[in-house]
């Protein structure tokens, strides 16, 4: 058990890590976080919990993982699956996002360099792209 001096209240943790206490309570409700101890009904967190909270913030803040995915990764290997499968799935989704963003960037770069005043209306490349995606439109 951790010593009393190393444990922080939910309010102290929230202030230190830039969160609200309701967020920490929600994460507890969702099963991704548990306090190290409770004293007189107050949640107390130690270094291990602070590290877990930091990881949750990093993974959510980067926009790469949902809370459900984070719960799976934090749980490790379970009877129903393995955290590595979740990470592989997330990486595949990120690769798809990268591909879409790369394509979007190429479109925007073309628009910037297109000599036409209204590329959306009269650029041959834009017309070809529309036709490639949706066929000939009336």
From TrEMBL:
It comes from the Bacteria. It holds the Pfam family MerR_1. Coiled coil: none annotated. Gene3D superfamilies: 1.10.1660.10. The keyword Hydrolase does not apply. Keywords: DNA-binding, Repressor, Transcription, Transcription regulation. The keyword Transcription applies. Residues 7-76 form the HTH merR-type domain. PANTHER family: MERR-FAMILY TRANSCRIPTIONAL REGULATOR, REDOX-CYCLING DRUG-SENSING TRANSCRIPTIONAL ACTIVATOR SOXR. This is MerR family transcriptional regulator. It comes from Streptantibioticus ferralitis.
């Amino acid at each position: 058990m951790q010593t009393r001096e190393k444990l922080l209240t939910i309010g102290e943790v929230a202030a230190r890590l830039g969160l609200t206490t309701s967020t920490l309570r929600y994460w507890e409700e969702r099963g991704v976080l548990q306090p190290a101890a409770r004293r007189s009904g107050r949640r107390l967190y130690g270094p291990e919990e602070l590290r877990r909270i930091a990881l949750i913030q990093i993974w959510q803040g980067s926009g790469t993982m949902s809370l459900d995915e984070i719960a799976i990764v934090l749980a490790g290997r379970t009877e129903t699956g393995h955290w590595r499968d979740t990470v592989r799935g997330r990486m595949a989704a990120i690769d798809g996002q990268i591909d879409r963003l790369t394509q979007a960037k190429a479109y925007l770069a073309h628009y910037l360099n297109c000599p036409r005043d209204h590329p959306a209306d009269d650029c041959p490349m834009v017309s070809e792209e529309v036709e490639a995606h949706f066929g000939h439109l009336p």
